[in-house]
Amino acid sequence: MVDLVFLHAPSVYDFRERATLWGPISDLVPSTPVFDMYPLGFATMLAHLESAGFDVRIANLAARMVRSERFNPDHFIAGLASRAFGIDLHWLPHAHGALALAERLRVHHPTTPIILGGYSATYFHQELIQYPYVDYVLRGDSTEEPLERLMEHIVAGTEPTDVPNLTWKSSSGDAHVNPITYVPEDLDHLTLDYHPMVRSVVRRIDLANVAPFSHWLEYPIMASLTVKGCTQNCTICGGSAFAGRLMTGRERPAYRSPELLAADVRRMGRLSRAPVFLLGDLRQPGIEYARRFFRAVQGYDGPVIVEFFKPVEPAYAEELAAALPNFIVEFSPESHDAEVRRASGKPYTTEGIEQTIAACLAAGARRFDLFFMIGLSQQTASSALETVDYCRELLAHFDDGRLVPFTSPLAPFLDPGSRAYEQSERYGYIRHATTLEDHRRLLLQPSWKHILSYETRWMDRATLADVTYEAGFRLNRLKREVGLVSAERAQETEQRIAEARALLQEIDRLLATSDSATMDQALKRLKSRIDRANTSTVCDKSELDVDTGLVPFRLINLLRVGLGLEA
User: Fold this and answer.
1) Based on the domain organization, do 430 and 528 belong to the same domain?
2) Which helix (H) or strand (E) covers residue 80, if one does?
3) Residue 358 resides in a domain
4) In degrees, to the nearest 5, what angle opens at C-alpha 424 toward C-alphas 423 and 429?
5) Is 155 inside a domain boundary?
6) Is 47 part of a structural domain of the chain?
7) Which of these, 216, 269, 351, 374, has the minimum number of CB atoms within 10 Å of its CB?
8) Do 140 and 232 belong together in one domain?
C-alpha cells in the first residue's frame, strides 16, 4: 500500500462512449480535447512528500484512456491500495471527470479519504465539499506543505484543524474552512525537476501512468516554473494578479531564484532533447532577475521556450540569445486590434509587437510563435477575421519561415476568478454558467459551441464557432501559400475544418428536431466521424512541436536517473 495516489481524470470521464464534437479547444496545447495533461503541481507535490518520507504514486488515467481503448479505468481504480487519493481540479474543463473519478473511488474504496486541489477546486471549494465523495479540498497555488500536514493527520487518524488552506469534513460530516495562511513568498523550497518522477517510473516500471500527457512519450517536452502568481491583469486569465488576490490571497508573485531555475533547466536537459518550457516572463521581477538567470544558464545549448508578456527591446533579445542560443519565443498579443488588446489588459502598441518579432529573429530565435484568440472583449467577427489579414502582412515582412502565427477560440469556459468572469457585464461577457455543477453539465453537451460557458455582446455562441472555423480556414490557407505547412498537410486541415462545420450543422439540426433518445442514437452513428474531426481542427497540432533533429527521449539517461546513478 502506498500513502497517496495522485490521479488525473479526462475532462469527461466516459468520453470514449460519448460523441462530443470538441472542435479546436485543445489545438494549441499539448494535450488532446479531453485535456489529458496533468498540472505541474503533481511533480512538485510528489517530490515534496517523498522527501518527507511518504510513498507517492501518479496515475494519469486520462492519458492511459487516450492511448489504449483496452485500458479499463474502473478496473485500475479498484486495484489501487492507498491511504488517500488526490485528484486535480485545476482547470475547469475537468469539472465532470474529476467528480466522476471521485465518485468511482468512493465506490471501490469507501473509507479512503479523497482530496481535491487546484485553482478551480479553490474557487468552488464550498460547493465541492458538499459532494459526498469529497473529503478535503486544498486551496491556493502552493499546497505542498499543507498536503504534507494533511497526510500526517490522515496517517494518525486525527482531524486537520491546524492545516492551512484546507476545507474539510469532520467525522460528523460538518464542513470546515481553515483560513489560507500558507502563501510562500518564493519557490526556492520546491523541487522543480522530473528526477523524482523518473525514479518513481523505474522503481514501479510505470511509465504509462506517469507520462504527463498521452503523446509525451513521443515528444517529452518539460516545463519549469519561474513564478506563482502574476504581475499582469489580463482580462480572461484565471492566473492574473486580480485572480490571485481573490482566490489564493497572493498579493505579490513568488519567484524561483534565477540560479535554481538555471539548475532546473540543466537537469531537465539531461533527460530529454525536447524543449524546456520556462513558464512565465523572466522580466516580471525585473531585468536583473533575467540577467542573473542568463549568467547562471550560460553554456546551455538545448532548446528552451520563453514567454513574453509584453514587447521586448532589441538589447534584451540579444542578451537572451547570448545565454540561450537555441531559444524559441511564445508571445500572445491575442489580437491585432489595439482596442481589443486594451480591453484584454494588454495595452501595448502594434509597433511593439512588430519590434519584438524583428528583435528576436535578428538575434537568432529558432522560431517565434505568435498567438491570437477569438472571443475577446470588444472583438467583433470582422475584427477576428482581420487578424488573419494582419498575419499576412507580418509573414510578407518576416518571410524566412521562423514566424508562425496561430489562432484559437477562448474555450470552453471563462476562467473563474478572472475579470471576465467576475466583472462580466463590464467586459461584455454573457455567462451561461455560475456554479461548478453548471460547468459539469455543460461538458455533457454534444458540441463545443453548446459547451461554451459564455458569449459576448459582439459575438454569440454561433458566431464565435463560425468565426473560429473561418479564421482557421483562412490562416491555414495562408500558411500553405507562404510555405509554413505543406500542401498535403494544409489540405488535410482544410478537410477537417469542412467536416467539423458539417458535423456542427448536423448536431444543431438534431438538437432542434430530436428527442433525447433519438439524439443519443444519432450521435452514436456519427461518433466515428466526430472522433476523427476532434484533433487538429484549425491547425495540425504537430505545428506546435519543435523539430530538434534528434531522438528526443534519452532512455539511457532515464534509466541512470531511476537507478540513482545520476543526480
Assistant:
1) yes
2) none
3) yes
4) 160
5) yes
6) yes
7) 351
8) no
Total domains in the chain come to: 2
Q: Which amino acid is at 530?
A: I
Cell of residue 335, nine digits? 489580437
Contact by Cβ (8 Å): 493, 476: yes
Report which secondary-structure segment, H or E, holds 241: helix 241-247
Domain boundary among 177, 199, 229: 177
Q: Angle at the Cα of 227 (from 364 to 543), degrees rounded to 5?
A: 45
Domain shared by 486 and 369, yes or no: yes
| Residue 28: CA count within 13 A, CB half-sphere | 20
287-297 vs 314-323: helix axis angle to the nearest 10?
A: 30
pTM as predicted? 0.94
Going by C-alpha positions, the residue among 289, 255, 252, 262 that lies closest to residue 187 is: 255
Query: Which of 235, 249, 320 is closest to 283 using CA atoms?
Result: 320
The residue with greater pLDDT, 211 or 142, is 142
319-340 tens-digit pLDDT:
999 999 999 999 999 999 999 9
| Closest listed residue to residue 306, CA positions, set 391, 219, 365, 231 | 365
Tell me the three state secondary structure of residue 51. Answer: helix
Interstrand relation of 429-431 and 454-456 (parallel, antiparallel or unpaired): antiparallel
- pLDDT band with cut points at 50, 70 and 90 for residue 196: low
- Give domain status of residue 205, yes or no: no
Contacts (Cβ under 8 Å, ≥6 apart) of 498? none
Pull the grid cell for residue 1.
500500500
Domain that holds residue 387: 221-544
CA 135 to each of CA 95, 104, 121: distance values in angstroms, whole numbers, following the listed order: 17, 14, 12
Same domain as 136, residue 228: no
pLDDT band at 152 (very low <50, low <70, confident <90, very high): very high
The crossing angle, in degrees rounded to 10, of helices 41-51 and 195-204 is 80
- CB contact set of 222 (below 8 Å; sequence gap of 6+): 194, 268, 271, 272, 274, 275, 276, 277
Q: What is the CATH number of the domain that holds 488?
A: 3.20.20
